[in-house]
């Protein structure tokens, strides 16, 4: 959450690229096990990613001919 990523884990300048592991955690985690924090950060980011993807998908008009697929 410094210069490379924003608070949602998005890598600046790279559309669709996220960092959702321990590298996103600021500072040192040497005093405790950070696994719960990392999982919470990743889950929070996934909520944002899916909400954004859903909102984007709603705005796109997709015309698919089912006979062509089958």
General description of the model:
The protein is mostly helical and 70 residues long. The chain has one domain (1-59). The protein is built from two helices and no strands. The protein has helices spanning 35-59, 66-69. The longest helix has 25 residues, at 35-59. The chain is elongated and about 60 Å long. The relative contact order is 0.12. The model has no long low-confidence stretch (mean pLDDT 75).
The gross shape turns out to be elongated
Global structural class:
mainly alpha
Helix content class: 40-55%
**Are there runs of 5+ residues with pLDDT below 50, and where?**
none
Radius of gyration: 17 Å
Percent of sequence in beta strands? under 5%
Mean pLDDT: 75
Count every helix, treating DSSP H or I runs of 4 or more residues as helices.
2
Number of strands: 0
**SSE string, helix = H, strand = E?**
HH
Largest sheet: none
Number of domains: 1
Our measurement of the CA-to-CA distance between the termini, rounded to an integer number of angstroms, reads: 46 Å
